[in-house]
TrEMBL record:
Domain of life the protein comes from: Bacteria
Keyword Metal-binding: no
Residue intervals of the Aminoacyl-transfer RNA synthetases class-II family profile domain: 138-341
Gene Ontology CC entries for this record: cytoplasm
Example GO BP: aspartyl-tRNA aminoacylation
Species, as recorded: Micavibrio aeruginosavorus
Protein name (database record): Aspartate--tRNA ligase
Assigned keywords, A-Z: Aminoacyl-tRNA synthetase, ATP-binding, Ligase, Nucleotide-binding, Protein biosynthesis
NCBIfam families (UniProt xref): aspS_bact, PRK00476.1
Amino acid sequence: MHLYRSHKCGELRKSNVGETVRLSGWIHRKRDHGGVLFIDLRDTYGITQIVSEGNAELEKLRVESVITVEGEVVNRAEGTVNAKMATGEIEVVVKSVTVQSHADVIPFQVAEDDGAGEDVRLKYRYLDLRREGMHKRIRLRNNVVSSMRRRMVEEGFQEFQTPILTASSPEGARDYLVPSRLHPGKFYALPQAPQQFKQLLMMSGFDRYFQIAPCFRDEDGRADRLAEFYQLDVEMSFVQQEDVFAVMTKVIGNIFEEFNDFTGTKHRVEFLPNMKYADAMNNYGSDKPDLRNPLIIRDVTDVFKRDDVTFNAFKGVIEKGGVVKAIRAPKVADRPRSFFDKLNDWARGEGAVGLGYITLKDGAGAGPIAKFVPAEAQAELNKAAGLEEGDAVF
C-alpha cells in the first residue's frame, strides 16, 4: 500500500465496504460523541468521515492538522447517511494514525464562513484557499484555461510563450520597469500585452498563435482594471474580420456552455450578438455596451423635423446638422414632478442645457414639451421610441 494514501478523500463508496484503506488530508471538522470521535477528513477531491474510539492523539489535534489514517471502510449506521456527500454512505474506522503536521490555533475558520476580513484572509492566503468557495474558484480557473487550450488546438492554433522582460511598448497605461543588472541605468519593461511578439510570429509564418498571456499595467485598480492579469491572446494570418469572429465565437461560446453551471445552477447561455460599431453607438452610446441594460437610445429626429412640431430648441439643433435622440423609461408616467426635476438637474450637472420629457397618459402626451407636439406627431413619437401607456420618453 502507498505510504500516504490508497484512495482520495472523495473516492470511497459502498462498493469499498470491507476494504482496508489509507487516506491523507486535513482535519476539516471534529465531533466528540461520548468518547467516539468523528472527523471529516478533507483533501482537494472531497471529504470522508473517519471514526475513532479512544485515540488520545487524535483527540488532541486541532482542525487543519494534517494526518494519515489507515482503517476499514464500513457502512454508516442507519439514519446517519449523508446524501449531500459523495462519500456519505460510508465511514472509515481508524486503526492507526500518523500525524504529518500539527496545526496551531487558526486566525479564521476554514470549514465555515466566519466573516473574516480581507486583510487577514490575504495574510493567511494558504488558509483562505482551503475554503470551499475559494478552492472551487481556483480549480475553475484551471479547468477553464485547460478547456481554452484544448479548443484552440482543435482550431489549428499553436501555443507559444513570448518574452516577459522586454523593451517598452506603451499601450495606454504606464509600464512596470525592472532595472537591468547587466546594463546599469537601463530597464526592462514588463509587457502590457504581447502585441509585437505575436505579429513577429505571423511574419515568421506560424499562421495561428495563441497564449494565455500575462499582462502588466501600472495603473490604479478599478472594477475592470488590474495591475496584473491573464488574457487569451490570439493572432491569425490571411484572415478577414469574419474569420476571427467565427473562430472565437465558437471557442468562447463553447467555454461558456461548458462552465455555465459552476455556481451549482445551470443557466441558459446567450452569446453576444455580432453588433456593428454604428449600431452600438447609436443604440447604446458606447462601443462596449452592457446588454443587460434594457434602455435603448432611439433616433426621433424625424418627429421633431415635422412642420407641425414647434419645439424650437430641438429644431435649432436639427437645422445645424444635429440629431435628437430619446430614451424610453417604462412605467414612470405616474412619478411625481420631483422625479423628473431630479433627472433634469442631473443632466444639467453633466453639461446639458436640460432634459426634455413627455409622458404618455390615457393615450395623450403630457409634460413640459408635450404642448409643442400635436397628436399626430405624438403618435409618430410613440412608434419611434416604442412608447406604451404609462411610459415616459426623455
